[in-house]
Design brief:
alpha/beta; 151 residues; six-stranded parallel sheet
């Protein structure tokens, strides 16, 4: 069974909602899914998964949310070359750097060899139906990529 690890960073719940949408979709696809909050998660957990997902909000200070910094640093010591990754998150287009943390996490995955399964999904504040459709499509693409890699 394909193993999926979903890690989220969320203050007001939007990214937690995104993580729930993805959990449900991957479960529908028949995957074994584990979801957890970033400050409660060891980055090395990604090594036990086939598919690695991060859903993170962005604040206009720091590269990634403060409570995700240790996780972000620890990611750089992993070898994720046999993994498929996907990044997504909620932001607010009011800010200049819309969803910057999503791109930073994508870079971190690329640096440790993980393979992108789908283009990042960036959500304006809380996920609405069209965002949910995009997230479902995102999960399907990532799952397909994992199958192609025989994971
Ligand atoms: C102080 C502050 C700074 C923020 N800075 C950014 C930003 O630079 N870029 C962005 O896209 N969103 C920014 N946001 C918006 C949040 O990312 C957005 O509200 C998001 O939905 C929060 O996600 P959460 O509900 O998972 O905590 C900021 C919000 C606050 C309160």
């Amino acid at each position: 069974m394909t193993k999926v690890k979903i890690v989220f960073a969320s203050i007001t719940g939007n990214d937690e909602d995104i993580a729930y949408v993805l959990t449900e979709k991957f479960e529908d696809l028949g995957c074994d899914v584990d979801m957890s909050e970033v400050s409660q998660t060891d980055a090395a957990d990604f090594e036990d998964a086939d598919i690695c997902i991060i859903a993170s909000y962005t604040y206009d200070q720091g590269i990634v949310p403060d409570e995700a910094l240790d996780f972000y640093d620890d990611m750089q010591d992993l070898d994720l070359s046999e993994k498929v990754y996907g990044v997504c998150g909620s932001g607010d287009t009011f800010y200049e750097d819309f969803c910057r943390a999503v791109d930073e996490f994508a870079k971190a995955f690329e640096e440790v060899g993980a393979k992108s399964g789908a283009e990042p999904v960036k959500v304006e504040l809380d996920p609405e139906q069209d965002d949910i459709d995009k997230l479902d499509n995102f999960a399907e693409k990532i799952y397909k990529k994992a199958q192609e890699m025989d994971l």
